[in-house]
Design brief:
Layout (H helix, E strand, L loop, with lengths): L10 E4 L4 E4 L5 H7 L9 E3 L5 H4 L2 H8 L9 E5 H4 L11 H4 L4 E5 L4 E4 L2 E7 L8 E6 L5 E4 L18 E8 L9 E2 H11 L3 E5 L3 H6 L1 H12 L3 E3 L5 E4 L3 E4 L11 E2 L1
Parallel strand pairs: 2-3, 3-4, 4-5, 9-10, 10-11, 10-12, 12-13
Antiparallel strand pairs: 1-2, 1-16, 6-7, 7-8, 8-9, 14-15, 14-16
Length: 261
């Protein structure tokens, strides 16, 4: 986040009806516009936990979603720490901004809700911010995908993601470099084996991962699990359809629905 060696703008999820921004960290507004994604078209904002690389642009995206705070629109969903504060962090989205979405939801493990045509369930995560959650998304036509958020490995985590087609893993550290509350390549291998996804993308790459080469670490996961695995790139787009198609910025053609950015 501090060096911006990689963007910290989060992920945009677009389907036929849903337009959702997941974990809008620093740069979410600027890079949304740069990528041609009008933030005023948002109808959902999801925040996984109360750390600045996941929430700092949430308020400005709420302002965009609600058309400059003139219309009650969309859904805001986040853990209690983000919305109300906790022992580990203060509230990071103001009462004023929380009042403008049509629906504001407090998340904990197992909460189910819907944003347009996306069914969403919050999943358990174990991070240095205790209220952290991950997300599992169910689409109408093309199966499920999921995002772990920041978490360390724990027994049973793979069950939350069993059967998803696309699994986005927040892999902060390379093999042999553990850090409490975060995932390493070795942890990712265990989760992929347990969950059995069709495609894996590792993201939320820390500096040690970048220096080690996330592409080599992704290859290691693929070799150990036989599941196609890629390291995220800034501006990468993933189309979830009958087949999963991935476009890197250098090979991008026309944008498409069901896109993750």
């Amino acid at each position: 986040m501090i060096t911006q060696r990689r963007r910290t703008a989060g992920i945009r999820i677009i389907s036929e009806k849903a337009n959702v921004h997941l974990d809008p960290g620093p740069g979410a507004l600027v890079y949304s516009i740069k990528e041609g994604l009008d933030p005023q078209k948002l109808n959902g904002i999801l925040v996984s936990h109360c750390h600045p690389d996941h929430y700092t642009d949430a308020e400005v995206l709420i302002e965009a979603m609600t058309r400059g705070m003139t219309r009650k629109r969309g859904v805001l969903a986040a853990p209690r720490s983000v919305l109300k504060g906790s022992e580990t962090c203060q509230r990071v989205i103001s009462t004023y901004h929380q009042s403008m979405p049509e629906q504001t939801l407090i998340l904990e493990k197992g909460v189910e809700f819907q944003i347009q045509d996306l069914k969403i369930k919050s999943t358990e995560a174990r991070h240095t911010e205790p209220d952290t959650v991950g997300f599992r998304f169910e689409t109408t036509a093309f199966g499920d995908f999921a995002y772990t958020s920041d978490t360390e490995y724990f027994e049973g985590i793979g069950e939350y993601y069993r059967g998803v087609r696309l699994l986005l893993l927040c892999v902060m550290r390379p093999s042999g470099k553990p850090w409490k509350g975060h995932m390493t390549t070795d942890d990712a291998i265990k989760i992929v084996r347990e969950a059995g996804p069709e495609q894996v993308i590792i993201t939320h790459l820390g500096m040690q991962m970048i220096f080690q080469s996330p592409f080599k670490e992704a290859k290691k996961i693929q070799e150990k699990t036989s599941v196609p695995t890629l390291a995220a790139m800034d501006g990468m787009r993933v189309m979830l359809a009958e087949e999963i198609k991935i476009e890197t910025p250098s090979k991008r053609g026309q944008s498409a629905l069901n896109t993750f950015i």
